[in-house]
Amino acid sequence: MKDALQILLADAHTCSRIGLYQVLADAGFYIVAETGCLSEFDTLMTRDQPHLLLLASNLLPALPASFLVKLRQYHPETTIALLLDDDDDLPLRELAEAGIGGMVLKSESGDAIVQTIRAALAGRTAISPELWARMMALPDAPADGTQEVLLTTQEQQLLQHLCADQSNAEIARSLHLSRKTVEKRLTALYKKLGVKTRVGAAVWYLRRDK
User: Fold this and answer.
1) What domains, with CATH codes, occur in the chain?
2) What distance in Å separates the CA atoms of residue 77 and residue 52, rounded to the nearest whole number?
3) What are 97-108's pLDDT values in tens digits?
């Protein structure tokens, strides 16, 4: 299993972990470790260096976005995907902006969870359709200034490809640019929009003309 994509599975509910373990194993992933305890995260991630942390919302602390930002700072090599419950009252936009790789509802199908993980690992915008709909339905933040930002044709093209769920490599091929150039332009665009991640940029663009 050395060449398989390695996942650290974190969920406070044992039965849920068992079900997720089977779904992920059937999809060809290798579960390098599993835990139901928040205090074990740092040790397991440092020891195993998984490609992805699949983290259930029942293990998130009181300030989830701040926790995720710090987790990404300490373990930048690991992609983080969140599993949310239907009745979670969490700040979805803040979570999306915390540098995570993806979000999906635990109640969605096993295929949807696997697709979200694969998209996150590929560097695409890995938010399930149900959660996209919820974020789009949220009221606008006061005075966010999105209507005042003027986009160049080049910036609009980047956002359109990003919203089409293309990775940086795919955007580079579509626009006949190098991947490094795309990454540089996206970084500048995030700063202009006042966001930190591709998910934040996609949400900004899709909501602009809502």
Assistant:
1) 6-137 (3.40.50.2300), 146-208 (1.10.10.10)
2) 9
3) 787 888 999 999
